[in-house]
């Protein structure tokens, strides 16, 4: 390949893919539509909105807020229809939440699954402002025969041969959690169209797909919902046919802000010899982080990093590690342990959908 810096391995030689396992044009197009957070974004406690990742299955709906209203109904004694102004008159809370797409890391699994080809950038932390859902459910008066709350977005498309609106459900218990929000602001601004304008669900601790955007309806239903985005997608299984377990709470993960400077094409890192402070963030759904460890020898030996502040109960914790870098090539690894003792593995745990995978990050560095 021309224009390649000779100090770095040729494209793909150092990558988890074999040369004949390149990405398809369809995946690249999905990657353009669904931006990731550049990993240098790990330096911010709150991700600037334009750096937060995006995942949009179908098209971004065009919403005229004068025409828009939210229906809160189904098995309720007093169904509601609320304009955005009416929703904003309800009690408001702001919570910093680390959101991660369940497909984060998908493109690092081998054999890889066709889908949005995330490496590790499908994560971000934002301050979401909205009204607790449970207040509206109380106002609407849930009937005793309701077992789940179904959330329907305005976006429609075809997936797995099914024409569908984007829909996900939660049990009444989950939906009534005090921190489950109907959010209309992200980082102090109205939601942007790609992030769900005018209103979205925020369920702190759960993988991204739970946070239904462009809300149209919130309905109490009498049977568990078995739609495509519940039963056919976001399942941890070894084959297409198998139902498997659903992806739910975000698993423990640590990531490193890339040290030094990048090689343009491969993103391999060039670091100056001497003391280097490696930094990053670690998170785990609804658990705290009890430790972060660093390895500079591709996972053979590990040392404790120093933990910084946790941005909020549902947001990532900062970590840092002092490394005395001497000339050579390194594979830096970082792994976190959550407060329940779950620790990241160096090996992949492959599944068919490429979801809820949290293998340790490896960062290739040349020290000169
Ligand atoms: N209506 C609707 N909601 C949605 C989606 C979608 O395609 N449509 N994508 C989901 C997925 S898979 C993720 S990871 C998050 C991403 O939220 P963000 O784009 O604001 O980061 O939104 C979720 N909510
Ligand atoms: Mo996602």
Outline of the structure:
By secondary structure, this protein is mainly beta. Helices cover 8% and strands 35% of the residues.
Q: Gyration radius, to the nearest Å?
A: 21 Å
Beta strands, count: 22
Which compounds are bound in this model?
ligand MTE, molybdenum atom
| Fraction of residues in β-strands | 35-45%
Mean pLDDT, as a whole number?
94
- Spatial ordering of strands, largest sheet: 14-15-22-21-17-18
- Reading the helices and strands in chain order gives HEEHEEHEEHEEEEHEEEEEEEEEEEE
Q: What is the CATH homology-level superfamily of the largest domain?
A: Oxidoreductase, molybdopterin-binding domain
Text of the CATH class of the largest domain: Alpha Beta
Helix run count: 5
N→C terminal distance:
23 Å
CATH topology of the largest domain: Sulfite Oxidase, Chain A, domain 2
Number of domains: 2
CATH architecture of the largest domain: Alpha-Beta Complex
Q: Helical proportion?
A: under 10%
The SS-based structural class is: mainly beta
Global geometry: globular
Major sheet summary line: 6 strands, mixed
Query: Which residue ranges are poorly predicted, with pLDDT under 50 across at least 5 consecutive positions?
Result: none
């Amino acid at each position: 390949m021309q224009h390649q810096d000779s100090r770095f391995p040729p494209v793909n030689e150092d990558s988890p893919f074999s040369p004949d396992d390149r990405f398809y044009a369809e995946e690249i197009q999905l990657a353009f539509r669904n931006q990731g957070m550049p990993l240098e974004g790990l330096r911010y406690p709150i991700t600037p909105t334009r750096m937060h990742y995006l995942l949009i299955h179908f098209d971004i709906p065009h919403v005229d807020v004068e025409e828009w209203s939210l229906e809160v109904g189904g098995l309720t004694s007093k169904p509601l229809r609320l304009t955005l102004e009416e929703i904003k008159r309800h009690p408001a809370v702001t919570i910093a939440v680390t959101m991660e797409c369940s497909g984060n890391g998908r493109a690092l699994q081998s054999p890889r699954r066709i889908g949005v080809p995330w490496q590790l950038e499908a994560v971000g932390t934002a301050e979401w402002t909205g009204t607790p859902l449970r207040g509206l459910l109380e106002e609407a008066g849930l009937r005793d025969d309701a077992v789940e709350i179904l959330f329907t977005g305005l976006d429609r498309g075809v997936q797995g041969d099914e024409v569908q609106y984007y829909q996900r459900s939660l049990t009444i218990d989950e939906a009534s959690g005090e921190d489950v929000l109907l959010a209309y602001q992200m980082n102090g601004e109205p939601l942007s169209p790609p992030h769900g304008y005018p209103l979205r669900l925020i369920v702190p601790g759960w993988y991204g797909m739970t946070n239904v955007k462009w809300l149209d309806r919130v309905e109490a239903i009498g049977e568990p919902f078995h739609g495509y985005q519940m039963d056919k997608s976001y399942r941890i299984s070894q084959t297409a046919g198998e139902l498997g377990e659903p992806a739910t709470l975000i698993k423990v993960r640590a990531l490193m802000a890339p040290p030094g400077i990048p090689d343009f094409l491969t993103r391999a890192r060039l670091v100056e010899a001497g003391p280097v402070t490696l930094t990053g963030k670690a998170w785990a759904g609804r658990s705290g982080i009890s430790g972060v460890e660093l390895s500079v020898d591709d996972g053979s030996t590990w040392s404790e990093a120093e933990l910084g502040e946790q941005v909020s109960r549902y947001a990532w914790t900062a970590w840092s590690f002092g490394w005395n870098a001497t000339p050579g090539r390194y594979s830096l690894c970082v792994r976190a342990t959550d407060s329940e003792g779950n620790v990241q593995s160096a090996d992949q745990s492959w599944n068919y959908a490429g979801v809820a995978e949290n293998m340790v990050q490896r960062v290739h560095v040349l020290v000169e």
